[in-house]
């Protein structure tokens, strides 16, 4: 018998139906199904079909029993039985809270006597009865269909060992060589569209480049980086360091297009590309997260990057990134 209880599935009910047809005792049925006999008694009592008009048609039928069980669970859902709780969850979802944040806050506040788990909220969002509410649009990924649990592959498995930051040469980390960049993606409010901005910073000079993108698809992002960096000499575009976001999974195009290596930070380690993270904070002063990029042109971003590159920096001996960058370009000739 299993130590972990789970609901009877349709295959379990099919087997139960066949065993009952053969008049196998309930205790033996429970043993064969690996269940407690009380589970079998409860299943037969709750999910046996009863027809008062035609008693001869009454009985236990696997598909009917499965439908009866699912309908009962639907009626007994907490968010259906408690309208106030349903309103609370709906309002928080529209405020872009995650299901985990909603469930956790209910416990932390102790206001509601009813507790729910994040899985209950996900099932509510994607249920047939409530799908028309479109609450999935307020989730971080805004998926129309829920992905099967356990199907998401960790990002780390997609990064070859020889591209991980632990394999990156020490002279890149020490900023002793020119032409090594860090890249990141600035994301904006979802309801304003999918447009975003690629930010790239040269590690030694702190020179910043900003590129507007229409979406987060990797190949178009990489193509724009190639287009922007192709005019530079090869010593000015030796490598790029990214995080493990899916938008950078087309990194091989950089090596094919401009001969640049790509390196990837460890999971949840943004500090490993601190130059671009620092630049992002400066950029956010002028382009906050609620900016509508539809009204921002590429030349506006180029002008902003020029403004940042013309500011003296203490780490550069109060020279500007533009001055240091141009000096290294001249040295390479």
TrEMBL record:
Q: Which GO terms describe its biological process?
A: DNA integration; DNA recombination; transposition
- Keywords for this protein: DNA recombination
The reply on keyword Nuclease is no
Cellular component (GO) terms are: cytosol
> Entry's Gene3D superfamilies?
Ribonuclease H-like superfamily/Ribonuclease H (3.30.420.10)
Q: Which residues form the Integrase catalytic domain?
A: 165-329
Q: Which InterPro entries match?
A: Integrase_cat-core, IS30-like_HTH, RNaseH-like_sf, RNaseH_sf, Transposase-Integrase, Transposase_IS30-like
MF annotations from Gene Ontology = nucleic acid binding; transposase activity
Name by which UniProt lists this protein: IS30 family transposase
Q: Which organism is it from?
A: Mycoplana dimorpha
């Amino acid at each position: 018998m299993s130590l972990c209880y789970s609901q009877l599935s349709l295959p379990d009910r099919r087997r139960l139906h066949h065993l009952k047809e053969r008049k196998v005792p309930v205790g033996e049925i429970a043993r064969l199904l690996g269940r407690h006999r009380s589970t079998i008694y409860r299943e037969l009592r709750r999910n046996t079909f009863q027809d008062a008009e035609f008693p001869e048609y009454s009985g236990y039928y696997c598909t009917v029993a499965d439908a009866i069980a699912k309908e009962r669970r639907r009626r007994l859902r907490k968010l259906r039985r408690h309208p106030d709780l349903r309103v609370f969850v709906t309002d928080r979802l529209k405020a872009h809270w995650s299901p985990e944040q909603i469930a956790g806050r209910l416990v932390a506040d102790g206001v509601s006597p009813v507790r729910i788990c994040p899985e209950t909220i996900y099932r509510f969002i994607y249920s047939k009865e409530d799908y028309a509410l479109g609450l999935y649009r307020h989730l971080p990924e805004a998926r129309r269909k829920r992905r099967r649990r356990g199907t998401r592959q960790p990002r780390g498995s997609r990064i070859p060992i020889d591209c991980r930051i632990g394999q990156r040469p020490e002279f890149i980390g020490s900023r002793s060589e020119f032409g090594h960049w860090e890249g990141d993606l600035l994301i904006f409010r979802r309801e304003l569209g999918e447009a975003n901005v690629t930010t790239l910073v040269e590690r030694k000079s702190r020179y910043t480049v900003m590129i507007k993108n229409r979406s987060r698809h990797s190949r178009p992002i990489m193509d724009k980086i190639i287009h922007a960096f192709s005019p530079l000499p090869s010593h000015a575009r030796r490598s790029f360091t990214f995080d493990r976001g899916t938008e950078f999974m087309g990194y091989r195009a950089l090596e094919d297009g401009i001969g640049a290596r790509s390196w990837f930070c460890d999971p949840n380690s943004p500090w490993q590309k601190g130059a671009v993270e620092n630049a992002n904070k400066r950029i956010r002063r002028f382009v906050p997260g609620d900016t509508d990029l539809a009204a921002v042109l590429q030349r506006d971003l180029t002008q902003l990057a020029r403004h940042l590159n013309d500011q003296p920096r203490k780490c550069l001996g109060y020279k500007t990134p533009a001055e240091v960058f141009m000096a290294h370009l001249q040295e390479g000739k």
